[in-house]
Amino acid sequence: MGGLSPPGMVPMDLVAVIRHKVLTEGVPLREVSRELGLSRNTVRRYARAKSIAGPRVVRDARVAPVRDAVRVEAEALWRDRRAFTAGKQRLTAERLTELLRERGHEASARTVRRLVADLRRGEREVTVPLVHPPGELAQVDFFEVWVELAGVRTKAWMFLMRLLLRGATSRCSAPTKDTPPPFLAAHVAAFAHFAGVIAAVAYDNLTAAVAKVLLGQPRLLRPRFAHLVAHYAFEARFCRPGEGHDKGSVERRGGNLRLQHMVPLPTGDSLGAISAALQRRIDEAFLRRGEDVAAWEREQRALRPLPAEVFDPAEVRLVTLRHHASLMLRGASYSVPSRWCGGDMEVRLGPETVVFARGKDDEVTRRMPFGGRSVDYRHLLQPLSIKPQALRRVAQAGRPVRRPVARALGGAAYAAQPRRDRGPRGAWPRGCGTPTRRGWRRRRRASPARSPPSSCCPRATRRGPPPPRWWSRRRCAGTRSRRATSPATTPSAPSRGWHEPRG
After folding, report:
1. Sign (positive/negative) of CA torsion 431, 432, 436, 438?
2. pLDDT tens-digit map of 173-214
3. I need a labelling partner for 145 at 20 to 30 A (CA). Which of 26, 158, 197, 359 fits?
4. Do residue 33 and residue 178 come from a single domain?
5. Residue 119 domain boundaries
6. What is the CATH number for 227?
7. What is the pTM of this model?
8. Is 493 within the bounds of a domain?
């Protein structure tokens, strides 16, 4: 008969013939034994067996004297590798071979590779199958994606919360680092999408939620994230540092979303529009699977109701302004009313807006990206009314900025100027000229008695910035006073002006 089998054993194909003749065709044992040339007891044993065991190949342990000689030293180095490695600087089999040779052990690279394979096999983590009741646990991931934001390819952060009984939601956050306000706002949107609160949520140790991982792996939470956990009354669970497979369900779902719903790149005028379109696409694909919809209905009934008050995800700070009417927040610069300088104010940094509040007054501005700048010159009316050079720079910023400042400074600047510098009411501060389409034009005095002639003061008609105040008041006024008090001159004795060198 065909087939390979160890000596003394009946081939498996012959066993199949015996069982087929006896059990299927009903041939007597004696006739099968005579036909196949086997013992009647052998035929009876295979015909009445409840299961047929396959052939076993037993190998003797191979003697490896060199490997056994270096195994103890190699295991010691492998066990203590944490003391001299860090991060991606790992101990490899090649480097372990060199270390063993430095210690006087002669072993080939192949022998050490086999030792390292055995050591890694012994450290391999065993997965445990888990069963989650409805409404018990959700997993969260916060990862980078690319979108077309207003025609510009931009890196954004995507928030993904996945319920372990077939349910998921996703939100595109602000195109910044993983900061708390967008992360918290995504939680509020996710709970509103689910119309309920899950009992526990699993996270990795991302900086938007965890300030520090302490010894023994307890976590020091961010204040606003701890406020969110207390508001919705759910349990925050954290995975082991560097072990992403502790929440493999949401990690796998995030990879599928990138391939199924984000190619080509999502486009939109704002991240809110991109997020809403992506959520609708995910929900439409989810509703086409009847089994998942039934599981989601069971889980939705197990969710706790939402709190009566919606959580405010804004980050609250109390800052003290010095002499600068500006503030740096998350790498962006914002202007604040100059009248608040020297006092305390409250800043509420939200995902889309920034609110500055002091007492009953508040100012709302759009949140800027990292490196951005938001300047509202209406906050700086009082300093601009007494600083001509700064006011000139504001006028050169462009017509959209110049017009509201000029309109506001028409009354505010007049009241803020010293009495001696006030011109006609509603005019620009004295000495600054007037804004024109191409820049600034110096205001010329109409009375020749109040200004020196062009031959006397060349700067009076020169294009460019006006002369300093001390020039026009002291030098020119002194010249006029000397001219008024000097005796009558004759052609032989001409009068000496301030521009002529003294004898």
Report:
1. positive
2. 544 445 677 888 888 888 988 889 999 999 988 888 888 888
3. 197
4. no
5. 65-81+89-123
6. 3.30.420.10
7. 0.58
8. no
